[in-house]
Fold this protein.
Amino acid sequence: ARAKFEQFSYPFLRTLHGMPRWLVVVLPAILLFLGLILTGGVAWVGGILLFILWVFVAWLTALSWPALTAGQKVFRTIVVLAMLGLVVLKLMGRF
């Protein structure tokens, strides 16, 4: 399963590697910013933007999992779960 996941991810990683480095930092920051500030009637849009960011972070975490130490695995798991909580709260209109 791991080999299939890595094989599936390879084209996306090549695309990500070919992008300007600043874009790989700025685009997730924009998604996070917009996802957090959108409230009211468009809060669901913020939830979708945060969900897209969550998928990206979870995907990168899954790819790097074998190379992580135990402490790093715990921290990244907490970050991914916290982000998922934010997504759920945002989509429910409570954040």
About this structure: Residues 70-92 form the longest helix (23 residues). Residues 54 and 81 are 9 Å apart (CA to CA).
